[in-house]
């Protein structure tokens, strides 16, 4: 059973106070992009996880892998014996690892969808979203896809009206950033001073409904950007280079270090990508669009 699952970018990411459970209160707008991982789940005598593709060597293949934790959570939920889990998960990475695009969460969401099909479970999307939320803040959105408003720690999702398709150029960095470290850096910056905060979310929702990229571009914002740039000062150059190459605006994606540049249309995105890839400010560039649907079964074969 093979599932394709897209990466996300946060169009708006307002980070509030630290809660008692250590998570930060968020108001965020997610959009899923046409950059995907593929996850195959199959019945096998040798259970475990295998990872191939983009950055595969940096992904754990033991019980720390979020996709494997998804296998265990779903098994527990439906009362299967954890000692008898004859499941193999093959992950083909297209989403950069530790890139701020929720690649690990994507794989967990894809695993839930794949296994629910493989095991022929009668399980609704809402029930699956509940299990997803236990796995990580971004996992429910990765099931859902499209464009959505996330609140709580990011796991409470409401779909958002988004007209037309938006065209993006992504700049992948060398190496990743650990999400907890970036949140920690933001806490530190806030103790020291007043790092910039994004505005209200409503204008972002209005711009999405208008489908007008110039309007949306002015409103892209991410409270984690200052922290990501503080940890990786070179990102400042990347962000400047994208705009100099003709993008309408750029933002650090989630906790970074991937940068996402919104472009006026598909042709502009191709031009921006060509110029940015020659600027020497990132490892590689990709042209993508959004929104796209969340985790979806694309093949019924059960051989990984
Ligand atoms: O939910 P997830 O496991 O993806 O979060 C990874 C880390 O990011 C958390 O352990 C926490 O340090 C940070 N985080 C946070 N507030 C959120 C989401 C994530 O502090 N709302």
UniProtKB/TrEMBL annotation:
Gene3D superfamilies for this protein: 3.30.230.10, GHMP kinase, C-terminal domain (3.30.70.890)
Catalytic residues as annotated in Swiss-Prot or TrEMBL: 8, 138
Sample GO molecular function, one term: 4-(cytidine 5'-diphospho)-2-C-methyl-D-erythritol kinase activity
Binding residues annotated for ATP, in chain numbering: 96-106
Keywords from the UniProt entry: ATP-binding, Isoprene biosynthesis, Kinase, Nucleotide-binding, Transferase
Domain GHMP kinase C-terminal span(s) in chain numbering: 205-279
Catalytic activity: 4-CDP-2-C-methyl-D-erythritol + ATP = 4-CDP-2-C-methyl-D-erythritol 2-phosphate + ADP + H(+)
All residue ranges annotated as the GHMP kinase N-terminal domain in the record: 65-146
Top EC group: transferase
Membrane-crossing residue ranges in chain numbering: none
Keyword Cell division on entry: no
Pathway annotation: Isoprenoid biosynthesis; isopentenyl diphosphate biosynthesis via DXP pathway; isopentenyl diphosphate from 1-deoxy-D-xylulose 5-phosphate: step 3/6
E.C. numbers: 2.7.1.148
GO biological process: isopentenyl diphosphate biosynthetic process, methylerythritol 4-phosphate pathway; terpenoid biosynthetic process
Family assignment from sequence similarity: Belongs to the GHMP kinase family. IspE subfamily.
Alphabetized HAMAP family for the sequence: IspE
UniProt function note: Catalyzes the phosphorylation of the position 2 hydroxy group of 4-diphosphocytidyl-2C-methyl-D-erythritol.
Name of the protein this chain belongs to: 4-diphosphocytidyl-2-C-methyl-D-erythritol kinase
UniProt source species: Actinophytocola oryzae
């Amino acid at each position: 059973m093979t599932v394709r699952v897209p990466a996300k970018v946060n169009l708006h990411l307002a980070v509030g106070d630290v809660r008692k459970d250590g998570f930060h209160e968020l108001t965020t707008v997610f959009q899923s992009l046409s950059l995907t991982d593929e996850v195959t789940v199959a019945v096998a005598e040798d259970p475990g996880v295998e990872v191939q593709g983009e950055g595969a060597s940096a992904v754990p293949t033991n019980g720390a892998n979020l996709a494997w934790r998804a296998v265990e959570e779903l098994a527990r939920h439906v009362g299967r014996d954890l000692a008898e889990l004859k499941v193999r998960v093959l992950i083909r990475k297209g989403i950069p690892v530790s890139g701020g695009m929720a690649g690990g969460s994507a794989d967990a969401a894809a695993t839930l969808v794949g296994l629910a099909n493989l095991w022929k479970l009668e399980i609704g999307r809402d029930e699956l979203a509940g299990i997803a939320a236990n796995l990580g803040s971004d996992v429910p959105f990765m099931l859902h896809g499209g464009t959505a408003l996330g609140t709580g720690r990011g796991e409470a999702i409401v779909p958002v009206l988004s007209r037309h398709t938006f065209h993006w150029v992504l700049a992948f960095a060398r190496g990743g950033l650990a999400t907890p470290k970036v949140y920690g850096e933001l806490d530190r910056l806030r103790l020291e001073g007043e790092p910039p905060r994004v505005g209200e979310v409503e204008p972002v929702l209005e711009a999405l409904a208008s489908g007008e990229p110039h309007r949306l571009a002015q409103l892209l914002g991410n409270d984690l950007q200052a922290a990501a740039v503080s940890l990786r000062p070179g990102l400042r150059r990347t962000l400047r280079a994208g705009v100099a190459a003709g993008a309408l605006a750029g933002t650090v994606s989630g906790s970074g270090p991937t940068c996402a540049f919104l472009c006026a249309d598909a042709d502009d995105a191709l031009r921006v990508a060509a110029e940015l890839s020659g600027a020497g400010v990132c490892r590689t560039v990709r042209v993508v669009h959004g929104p796209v649907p969340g985790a979806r079964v694309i093949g019924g074969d059960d051989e990984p």
